[in-house]
Amino acid sequence: MYELKQHKTWFDEECSGFLEQKKQAKVRWLQDSSQRKVDNLKSVRREASRQFRKKMEENLKAKIDELETNIKIDNIRDLYRGINDFTKGYQPRYNIVKDEKGDLVTDCHSILAVWMNHFSQLLNVYVLNVVRQREIHTAERLVPEPSAFEVEMAIEKLKKKVLIKF
User: Kind of pairing, strands 104-105 and 97-98?
Assistant: First the structure.
């Protein structure tokens, strides 16, 4: 249903191979717990951990090099984004929503139903439109129209102000 996101950029097919080797060594050890199988499991774990650390260090070095090139070419936006990635780190997202009763909902279809219900109640408001139409009683003007004399006086004042400023 969901495709899992890969949060560790350094983890690749080679790392998956080391994980698979660890699993196989553990299965062999569980089937036969001889000292030779224990030593094999320890050495496979040690090698996998060594390779994982190497990959993480290479990834960190690549990120630092990228930040340095952003500094050199004055790409400030990507520089600050990269720095924020370092400072914030990984922050998991939770797919949990509370329904109208206050219960937690984790199923994706139920979550969609909760959001659909929420926004339909929020955006489909019919009662307020009826109330707003009833509040408008008349189309009469609140301010009376100016008389011809008032318009002439306003124009005269504008002419005087323009002459004074120049």
Answer: antiparallel
